Amino acid sequence: MTDSLFKNTLTYLKRAAELVKIDPRAFAILQAPKRSVEVNLPIRMDDGSQQIFTGWRVQYNDVLGPYKGGIRFHPLVSRQEVTALSALMTWKNAAVGLPYGGAKGGIAVDPQKLSTRELEELSRKYVDAIYPIIGPEKDVPAPDVNTNPQIMAWMVDEFSRLHGYAVPAAFTGKPVELGGIAGRDASTSQGGVFVLEWFLANSEQFKSRQPKDISVAVQGFGNVGATIAQILFHNGYRVVAVSDSEGALYHKNGLDIDAVLKSQQKKGKVAKNVCYPVKIKEVQEDVACETLTSAQLLESDVDILIPSAIENQLTAENASRIKAKLVLEMANGPTTPEAEEILEERGIVVLPDILANAGGVVGSYFEWVGNQQGYTWSNEDFADKLKNVMLKAATEIDAARYEYKTDFRTAAYIVALRRLSKAIKLRGWA
Ligand code: NAD
Predict the structure, then answer these.
(1) Which residues does 375 contact at the CB level (< 8 Å), separation at least 6?
(2) What residues does ligand 1 touch, defined as CB less than 6 Å away?
(3) What is the pLDDT of residues 215-250, one digit of tens each?
(4) Cys staple from 400: which of 61, 231, 343, 411, with CB 3.0 to 4.6 Å?
(5) Keyword set for this entry (predicted)?
(6) Is there a catalytic annotation at residue 325?
């Protein structure tokens, strides 16, 4: 699966390169990571035993600036997955115009099976192991799947301890008390909403429709999925289905996402929750919620589908059954190239990951800039700046789409490739 994620992203890059005709030597540099480090971390478990966990930090390309990318804790993390995600970070940062290269990190671990103390030790040992290659001017990690501000707090503390003084700019996605930004947590999802609403406002199909008449299904109910479902619910959209790894809840009137979230915090998994349909006065009948599998959610009859969980969810196998008219990729790599071709033939627009979910790294960029300068952003300032960067990127990618008569993803890769290949030339690498 994850091998294919790397192949997929290189396939997209090749498609873009055929249109912009980039120097083959610059293109060759972008086919593999610059540095890939594997670390083995012995952790003393609470029962006195020892377990060794394997982790990676892959630094794909830094021609545009310091490496930047999250750290994922998941049992299925592998070198291949981290490599693919580090490549995606490289294109993403370039596509939205950030002065960053791309990297990614990960540890093969199920953090739910660790105690808080074991998790802290693992987080600190990971930093000890990669300390020589990270730092504010070298490589700036952030949270990703199953990592959070607390883990960033331990990591930045460990980095600062090794360094001899506090270095808040070494990590982003930190708690506010340690130099984080209040809106950073929601910035991935908020950025996706800015891009989505920009698209809807410019789309013949959607521009005259009210949010309440636009139905949405969200796959994944974690940092990104739950937050985007909540923002869209508050913006008046009809969020009819949400799911996590164990199943989905569906109600045709729409779900009260605040209530689902509250219940999830108490009861855990989404599908085990009591269903909270939105009360619509003009709908008389009292229809019960349905539970679906996460795969069924992808095929539900909605206007907008938002994959926000894991990679390779829309494939050649299910693409012909997708009913949504628009796919907003909040997860990294949820659509395979084969699926994308089928969706395109069917007139289904895909707003690609490297644009749609870039709000997280844009938020991280503001956090890093503020930390470097000892400056704190107001919430309003942060939200305005995030919106500006996302809309500027969307507009630039849209212009490339028209110029090259292509789809959004290829256009986003074209914008990224133009920046990367120009910088490679200027630096004299090729
Ligand atoms: P998370 O761990 O907080 O949430 C993941 C969610 O997906 C959970 O609800 C989990 O139950 C669900 N899930 C896992 N497997 C599933 C399956 N097969 N079907 C349905 N649901 C499933 O992770 P996150 O931070 O929300 O990240 C989600 C995606 O967004 C990832 O692809 C990540 O790389 C991407 N992303 C995250 C950020 C960020 O700021 N957190 C930024 C950019 C991209």
Answers:
(1) 369
(2) 143-146, 188, 219-225, 243-245, 294, 308-310, 330-332, 357, 360
(3) 999 999 998 999 999 999 999 999 999 999 889 999
(4) 411
(5) NAD, Nucleotide-binding, Oxidoreductase
(6) no
